[in-house]
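Final report, Chapter 2: Outcomes

The project's central promise was a pipeline that accepts a single protein chain and returns its three-dimensional structure in a standardized token representation, suitable for archiving and comparison. That pipeline is now operational. To close this chapter, we reproduce one record exactly as it appears in the project archive, with the input sequence first and the structure output second.
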Amino acid sequence: MAENDMTHRERALRLVQDMGIVRARDFTAAGIPLVYLKRLCDSGDIFRLARGLYQDPNRLGEDAAHDLAEAARRVPNGVISLISALHYHQLTTQLPHAVWMTIPHKARTPTPQGLRLEIVRATGEVMSAGIEHVRVEGVEIPIYCVAKTVADCFKHRRHVGEDVAIEALKDALQKQKTNPSDLMRYAAINRVAGRIAPYIRALQ
């Protein structure tokens, strides 16, 4: 019994270390009985973030990056976007009051307890283009690249503010985080090329 108990404990800890933030279903899929979760939480070996969501206590974040990791685990069909993506790419001084995510148009609206989300919806190439993956706290996070993020801010300027979109465009070019060609490619996908082009010309 003790040997079996140790085996499950080691497998659970390895899973948490590898994935960063783990859902209860991930333990089940790995053949680890859920009864071990309470034991590991009680012993301090893992930390319960919310119902059905657990993390390595040594990787608990203290800033907005942690919220991105948690959102990615809890909304697996979403992509980090807009203000949250700007903040990650260091293109805004604003600290997001929530995690901004883009989800498929027909997807159910996520309502995770304890995590504030700002949701926008997209379809087709507007949803799928420009996604890159980064790792935060051991979690692989889908996030829009700089050029797509800027184009998204213009597309959703009524949500984020046109001044935020313009400032992000200027910073992205001045800091050489993207280039006019990529910006115009994603602007065309988002159907905002006519709005972005004058700003790019003015900065060249």
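Archive annotation: The chain has two domains: 2-59, 64-203.
This record, like all others produced under the grant, will remain available to the consortium after the project formally closes.
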